[in-house]
Amino acid sequence: MLVEQETAIKSQKWRQKHPSWWCLIIGLVAFFIMFIILMGGLFAFVNTSIGKNYIVAQIKAHTHDHIEIQGLTGFFPSHLKIAEIQFKNDDVGVWLDIKQVQLNWSPLALLNGNLTIQSLIAKEVNFEALPPKKVQEQGNVSKSERRLVNMPLTVDIQHLQIDQLFISDKVAKSNIYIAVDGQIKIRNLSQMMDLDTLKAAFMTKPKFRLFGPDKPADFQFGGKISGSMERKDGGDYSASLVPLHFSVILPQTDQNSDKIHIYLGLGDKL
């Protein structure tokens, strides 16, 4: 009891001797308490139907109606379900349509420059067209303006499942239908989302190799793929679900490269 009284007396004397420091400490504690309360309130708000509708409306407004989300549910931001996402362009309309999406990811990994997704499942992905590049009066378009996403992040999708991925003949040389179940790693998301790179990747003839790449791969996949591709004579090439493991070196537009290098591996694990 005596020790507690002595501690209280010393504390009171310190406050009287250093009133400015005491006020600063009280102010910081109050600030952190208010910050926690505000963040908790915001977190609770975005996990209500009103909050999710607000997020959807803000995304649509800030992208000038170029991204439209319908049916956003789940636990924000880490465990989400989305009925449909449409990516639009004023010239071509809907160029990418994704339906029945389930996303489980780790937002905190972004602090380290990584996009880590535990699970990404989509019932249907329709790649109808590539949006045209922005054209300036001077004819000079910066790298950032040619990118659909300007985020230089490494991507690790630990489980990717797409029941039907459709790539139209406006994007590739023929209509392609694919089902995917596996894991994906991307070295640089910005490079993958570059319009020139995507166009070259879809339109050029790949060059297959059986040995590992001699430099870091831009894209890696390990899992199972099945699908079909339409032929010019009206038939199609098809393949059942097979295990695949491959790495991809994308065409380097700044080096006038026109080849995709695909390195095949054994098994379905990265």
From TrEMBL:
Taxonomy of the source species: Bacteria, Pseudomonadati, Pseudomonadota, Alphaproteobacteria, Acetobacterales
Record organism: Commensalibacter intestini A911
Places the protein is found: Membrane
GO cellular component, one term: TAM protein secretion complex
Gene Ontology biological process terms, A to Z: protein secretion
Superkingdom: Bacteria
Membrane topology designation: Single-pass membrane protein
Signal peptide (residue range): none
Protein name: Uncharacterized protein
Keywords: Membrane, Transmembrane, Transmembrane helix
Spans traversing the lipid bilayer: 21-46
Keyword Transmembrane helix: yes
Keyword Amino-acid biosynthesis included in the entry's annotation: no
Main location: membrane
